[in-house]
Automatic annotation (TrEMBL):
This is FACT complex subunit. Residues 834-924 form the Histone chaperone RTT106/FACT complex subunit SPT16-like middle domain. SUPFAM superfamilies: Creatinase/aminopeptidase. Residues 555-709 form the FACT complex subunit SPT16 middle domain. It comes from Flemingia macrophylla. GO terms for biological process: DNA repair; DNA replication. The lineage of its organism: Eukaryota, Viridiplantae, Streptophyta, Embryophyta, Tracheophyta. It is found in: Nucleus; Chromosome.
Amino acid sequence: MADHRNGSAQAANGKAGAAGTAYSIDLNAFQTRLKTFYKHWDEHKTDLWGSSDAIAVACPPPSEDLRYLKSTALNLWLLGFEFPETIMVFTKKQIHILGSQKKASILESVKKPAREAVDVEIVLHVKYKNDDGTALMDAIFRAIRAQSKSDGRDTPTVGYISREAPEGKLLETWAEKLKNTKFQLSDVANGFSSLFAVKSNEELTSIKRAAYLTTSVMKNFVVPKLENVIDEEKKVSHSTLMEDTEKVILEPSKVNCKLKADNVDICYPPIFQSGGAFDLRPSAVSNDDLLHYDSASVILCAVGARYKSYCSNIARTFLIDADPLQSRAYGVLLKAHEAVIGSLRPGNRLSAAYQAAVSVIENDAPDLMSYLTKSAGTGLGIEFRESGLNINAKNEQIVKEGMVFNVSLGFQNLQSESIKSKGKHFSLLLADTVIINKDKTEVVTSVSSKALKDIAYSFNEDEEEENPSAKVDANGAEPLMSKTTLRSDNHEISKEELRRQHQAELARQKNEETARRLAGGGNETGDSRSSVRTSTELVAYKNINDLPPPREMMIQIDQKNEAVLLPINGSMVPFHVAFIRTVSSQQDTNRNCYIRIIFNVPGTPFSPHDANSMKFPGSIYLKEASFRSKDPRHISEVVQSIKTLRRQVVARESERAERATLVTQEKLQLANNRFKPIRLSDLWIRPAFGGRGRKIPGTLEAHVNGFRYSTTRQDERVDIMFGNIKHAFFQPAENEMITLLHFHLHNHIMVGNKKTKDVQFYVEVMDMVQNVGGGKRSAYDPDELEEEQRERDRKNKINVEFQTFVNRVNDLWGQPQFNGLDLEFDQPLRELGFPGVPHKSSVFIVPTSACLVELIETPFLVVTLGEIEIVNLERVGLGQKNFDMTIVFKDFKRDVLRIDSIPSTSLDGIKEWLDTTDIKYYESRLNLNWRQILKTITDDPQSFIEGGGWEFLNLEATDSESENSEESDKGYEPSDVEPESDSEDDDSDSESLVESEDDEEEDSEEDSEEEKGKTWEELEREASNADREKGNESDSEEDRKRRKAKSFGKSRGPSLSSSITKRPKLR
């Protein structure tokens, strides 16, 4: 253990140093942090640094004990290594360092960077073996006095860390001499706390990796270990569990964590507590008592790991056959813990975060207030507890972006009267590592679940058999679901009941999460829809001399300058073709041909060049022009030429606009001789490259930081950066004709001339050959059997090649530099799949571990489960052959996704899948108008929160409510809770939230058509309609009814009322 303690000098840049090896100080980091130190000293000299003229830091000798000292933290932060028995004194002009010859030789390399960074001179005072160092100390004191006198002060003020007692002969001598110098001494611990509080990106990366290791140990080792011990009723002591867990932390490969063992260490010996004796302090130790897991037992586990000296922490409570008080207390603690995390936002005070927890407990369980810990955690970094960042009721420090906290909250020494065993007294504890970002608070240990269903275990079989119904706690709260029993499933309550209880818990969590997000303006993640595309200046001719020489007074097309010249009042007037909206021709009975040109003008909706036109607000614009000709052939050629030219210009401008919105990607680093690219050949790509000519397959290669797909054609190449990949999928061919790799991206890229977020590479595993030879072959035809065997072999061979490629890329992504990307190929779970219609055609939709996808038919469907707010299953009821699924996203500005026509036989499977992935779902009998619902929520989020959040969708709740509650929830209540009526008036009144997309589309089309100039065909159609209505109104009405019924299909015609867009209600 010695080589993992503070006594070892460990490199912050990952190059560990041991005795006899050359230390490598990161000079760039040294310069940056030295500048930060001196700047912080200048800005906060009086309030944090005690008006110090010099700052003295003495680092003690190595120790076997785990300890956190600010002197050590400064060494690690500034130099990347710990330098034991070294004294550093900072002044405005010099940095004096007193240490051994070996340390001085290492520090020679920082002299020049220090001079360049802050214009200070580093003076090394070398202490030899038999020297007590007093003469060197006197030299440092003389330099401090000289610097102070030059600044006009007789008595210098020297800052030091008063709480760190001197250790070893050298430091004791230094402390004694410092006190006898008659310098004014000032404690600067608060200055260092503030200096270390805000972390750089490199520091945050180290903390995230430490958290990744911590959660991996908790999730992949501690929890399975405890489950195994309890399930097999083993006798294991707390100290044994502590030792086993510590070994796993120091060897990350044991939990599939690909971090170098040299860079990791423990923050403290892992803590395991049970059996009524609990200590919630980080200094607690795991005793030699056996793990206690009888009924109503509580087990506390806390694990902390360091990566490159940066700490992370996690603590979880596990309940065994919890009694009502334990379940209730844990639910309140979980809610309070989330409240603290939600309050840690830039600009808030730390006391406000603690007060958020107090408010939750005072509202939900005031009887537990006296048991709450006095602190909700501390700052976290190189030090496990950053003293200036305690989250308590008195700390008025401001939370800043880049700070990191160990949010630790608990109830100490609760007592349950119903428990007579050893566990009568119990405590609860939750802790997570939290990073403060600009937009959101990131819980980097959230992978290890703390939901009640995941930490509560039920083993009391006899009691469950006697009383299978769920108990209600003292406050009448709904019973909470426990984790599935490990020993036997025979005594478990029904799956439907478990699902219902879990969904009730999810509803509570989801409403709290949505309320926090809406209260904090949580729709910032949505894409702004108000952005307007700014086009380039479109000018046909820069001056009059560029016009082509005049010919006959007739319409001319200038292809080169993309202009149309029109004869107006004896002059040829040029118009850029992009400003022409439509062009059409018409021939009358006298064989006169007319050409009609309609232009884009200011104030016309959907005009792509309106911004350019508005530069001349006082001008008069030409809206349309008509010309007559006796030559129909010429008119036809002119119309065709204008349309072709306009189509080319619009396509070019659209592609230019698409490319202008792309996010700039990093440059692909090609593999070199040391790293051979991982290659997969003969692949096709979707979307396909544009252009003419025969399509050809290409090769996909994995390079240093991304993929490259290329064909033998020079212009057919696509680069996909690893950092731009949001999800990666591998789908082998089973019932499909293709094996594929699919990448869903964060930002759009261009494939050919197409802008896309989804890129797919595939191989057809079977040749699509049709036998036109005539007769039917026998099932026992040897040729037929041989052909089928060849197809199977080809499919298996392709699947194996893809699998090998995927495995090698997964190994590449497992390297430390890609840990922050969290990349791994996901594979669809076919057994959970179901048919549905997300776009226009029915497809087979399949869940993966993180998404819901359909990757065979285009357009592709990729829905990230983490972005889903809720799912509403619509048209669910007896007698229905199918139903619809509406997915509502956390970004309320984003349109909902609806998957139609899912067979009712898939309903139970979908419910089970949604429940196991912790997605809250509701059911309704009709389709809802989600645009109106989301608009109502975003317009008045407070009313939505006060009205119970999403519970207006809960059919069980709404069916039992009174008419008063129905009226109060009118903005959210689906129409199927109203009394049934056959009258047309009732149907039309209840359509406010029932989906009417057809009507919306028709209305929008009519609005847009009214704004456009009408073509000859439209004018002719309007005239004929007017004549027909004047001539025979009843016939036109019959025709309309007939056409309307036909458009909706024969099967639905008889049951339709006048409200066509409504689906028939269930009787």
